[in-house]
Amino acid sequence: MIRVVLPAHLRTLARVDGEVALNVAGLVTQRSVLDALEARYPMLRGTIRDHGTLKRRAFVRFFACEQDLSHDLPDAPLPDAIATGAEPFLIVGAMAGG
Amino acid sequence: MSKVRVLVGTRKGAFILTSDGTRKQWDVSGPHFAGWEMYHLKGSPVEPNRIYASQTSSWFGQIIQRSDDGGNTWHQPGTPPGEPITTPDGMPMGESNKFVYDTSPETGKPLTTHQHYDGTQRPWEFKRVWHLEPSLTDQDTVYAGIEDAALFRSSDGGQTWQELSGLRDVKGNLWQPGAGGMCLHTIVQDPSNPRRIYVAISAAGTFRTDDGGMTWRAINRGLKSKYELPDQDAEVGHCVHRIAMHPTRPNVLFMQKHWDVMRSDDAGESWHEISGNLPTDFGFPIDVHAHEPETVYVVPIKNDSEHFPPDGKLRVYRSRTGGNEWEALTNGLPQRDCYVNVLRDAMAVDSLDPCGIYFGTTGGQVYGSADAGDSWTPIVRDLPAILSVEVQTLP
User: Fold this and answer.
1) What distance in Å separates the CA atoms of residue A87 and residue A66, rounded to the nearest whole number?
2) Distance (Å, rounded) from C-alpha B127 to C-alpha B143?
3) Could you tell me if A15 lies within 8 Å of chain B, comparing CB atoms?
4) Pairing with B380, which of A12, A87, B204, B387 sits 20 to 30 Å away (CA)?
5) What residues in A contact B79, CB-CB < 8 Å?
């Protein structure tokens, strides 16, 4: 299972507490994790990445294993610790606006 | 006894203020959607307990919320309240925030470009919903005014949205963002003609459709933008801040432009200035008395860079003559050291008798008048900066 931590506002929208656990088929990438997340929580579509282009929203960041993966290619494999569920994939609202 | 419900959108959530017809004692609920920018909330004229709300965030984008019980509970359209959303089967698609510009071959509207601040052309890019205008005749039909400027319509209660893309055909390549963005902020439906709709865009001007939104034309003749445009009489490009109409006089429109207060007596075919004796003709909101079609309200702001009242005195100006002759309304409003603004969507009138007027400030105050503006009382003083105010008059 892939563990995903959502920011507070998106937990409210998805009506979940704590981490989200997802089954991701095939290679574990940003795209496959977000596809699985949006399939299970459709109300999050458009809040993390653009509806049309599927690009990450400017003030959203992806952290994992103490790294900022926001600028990695969406189809690049995520670290093994994410794929095995040892570490969570963090979706974070960027520091912006004070 | 009648009641009023004031819907307040702020930078950090929504608030709902309710009172009986005396409008003296108020209950305040909120913040709803705390922490989000609530650009606009508006109830359906057909079913007042149906309220649509635009919830936005620079971080997480656009959400559309809907209440079917007068604002007590909310849900994203397509996700009925109480529905177990984690059920694997039968999951609602959750597309109520999907605003995608129409590029379909059927309508033949490729993703066009508009003018950017630096003079270059940029493709349209969805940013947020500024304004929601429920249909006058169908509670499931609602229009959305968008930044980058476009008009969308939903016919299924906000679950899905389709662009009325013919609007972008009207010299859209010359439209440009104002300081607040290139937003479609005003939608006015003609109650006598369901196929006629007016919209206003900053900074493009005013437009009208007579065929229900398929085709549009600019209606800006008479507007003059001497300091904003190289051609002051340009067909498009004017920074219109707000237009208002009295429902019994649908061919008469009032406009607060960037500078100038304007009036049209022929459904926007031509405009003439009615600023008259206003201390300044810059401002954002404009509204019309519920029972007196020639009584108009504006809130003059010092100028285009000093967005606060002249002399630190918060004054609503009222004309009982359809413009040109204006009187300052000050009773109950701060007359010293006041430097707030009143944004374009932050003034509304109820339909009680006497007519109630309400407006919200960037300082977080909502002022109400239960006597058509003669006297004012702060209903709340310390909300976040107020983006929008709407009023519902309830039986």
Assistant:
1) 10
2) 16
3) yes
4) A12
5) 43
Tell me the domains of chain B and their CATH numbers. 36-81+94-238 (2.130.10.10)
pLDDT for the residue numbered B82: 54
Say how many C-beta atoms besides its own lie within 10 A of residue B289's C-beta: 21
Distance from CA of A24 to the nearest CA of B (A): 15
Overall average pLDDT of the B287-303 stretch: 97
Cα distance between residue B9 and residue B152, in whole Å: 20
DSSP labels for B285-345?
Answer: EEEE-SS-TT-EEEEEES-SS--S-GGG---EEEESSSSS--EEE-TTS--SS------TB
Q: Is B288:B244 a contact under the CB 8 Å cutoff?
A: yes
Residue B117 is predicted with a pLDDT of 81
So what's the ipTM on this one?
0.84
B57–A contact, CB cutoff 8 A = yes
* Residue ranges in chain A modelled with pLDDT below 50: none
SS3 state of residue B19: strand
Predicted confidence at residue B116, as pLDDT, reads 87
Structure tokens at B311: 């002399």
- Domain at A2-93: CATH architecture: Roll (3.10)
Mutate to test the interface with A, among B38, B56, B59 (most CBs of A within 10 A): B59
